[in-house]
Amino acid sequence: MPEVMMGFPRAYAEFTNPEDDTEVYRLDLTWLTSRWECIFGAGCPGIYADAPENGCCTLGAHFADADDEKRVKKAVKQLTPDLWEHYKEGKKRGWVELEDDDTVSPGEEPDRKTRVVDGACIFHNSKDFPGGYGCALHHLANKQGRHFHETKPDVCWQLPIRRQFREVERTDGTNYTEVSIGEYSRDGWGPGGHDLDWYCTANTEAHHGREPVYVNNKPELVALMGKKGYQLLKQYCEEFESRRGTLLRHPADPAD
After folding, report:
1. Is residue 94 within 8 Å of residue 102, measured between CB atoms?
2. Residue 148: closest CA among 38, 228, 26
3. pLDDT at residue number 7
4. pLDDT value for 232
5. Can you tell me the distance from the alpha carbon of 91 to that of 88, in angstroms, rounded to the nearest whole number?
6. What pLDDT score was predicted for residue 50?
């Protein structure tokens, strides 16, 4: 498995959110300038060896919050049988379920997520489905001329970009919210991440994109941090790319 293990050096940049001075963005320049590109349907073996056609859709998608589920619900209402293989199943028995008890921490309520049907997310269309292989919500966005971040659950359209929030207290007693934008690596999946048979972000097989992540995934990044924030991110990434040296480049990228 040509995967680079976690722990390699990374470069970061920080700047105040131009639209909210209580937030500071922390950018993983090593990830954002890498040549990662999703290879679903183009060589992706899936996160589990026994379900190679499912990509990373095997477990279903956990909703970030009620607004996330509400937005997806609106999109689901627009799905038709020609776009969604499990249309009848979803309409008859629903498309939301609670996560398994064995994945819930003691004292916490189980998260709501998309149902798993036939070993994958209920919105996952098989290769033989005439309406298109892969996510039905993704196909819906394409058909309507929209970007898929408007139709898919947050975790799905963001992956493998990861946005995290952390409250920070400065030594002078003032506070700010750190918003990190970086790589959703194996550890982002929790302890179960080590059990995945294959994972893409640090795998050389998925690092052959013609454009860096910050360019290829611009719509997602704009949705995560706004247009002004993205413009600054772009400037920092371009400046980082212009520098000589490879020690802080993503090690899964092909050698120059």
Report:
1. no
2. 38
3. 87
4. 98
5. 5
6. 95
d(Cα 87, Cα 219) in Å, to the nearest integer? 28
Nearest to 215 by CA among 14, 33, 38: 33
Residue where the block lists tokens 């033989």: 128
Compute the distance between CA of residue 35 and CA of residue 212 in angstroms, rounded to an integer: 5
Sequence-separated contacts (24+) of 234-239 with Cβ below 8 Å: 236/13, 236/15, 236/27, 236/29, 237/27, 237/29, 237/32, 237/33, 237/212
Question: 179 φ, ψ to 5°?
Answer: -115, 105
* 3-class state of residue 194 by DSSP: helix
Q: Is the link from the previous residue into 106 a cis peptide, with omega within 30 of 0?
A: no
Structure tokens at 147: 């970007």
pLDDT band at residue 137 using 50, 70 and 90 as cut-offs: very high
Average pLDDT over residues 2-17: 93
Q: Is 171 left (phi over 0), alpha (psi -120 to 50) or beta?
A: alpha
Residue with tokens 């992540």: 213
Q: What is the mean pLDDT of residues 199-225?
A: 97
pTM: 0.92
Rounded (10°) angle between helices 136-144 and 66-76? 70
* Distance set, CA 54 to CA 42, 60, 71, 224 (Å): 12, 10, 24, 26
Query: Quick one: average pLDDT of 170-186?
Result: 97
What are the φ and ψ backbone dihedral angles of 50, each rounded to 5 degrees? -85, 0
**Cβ-contact 45, 57 below 8 angstroms:** no
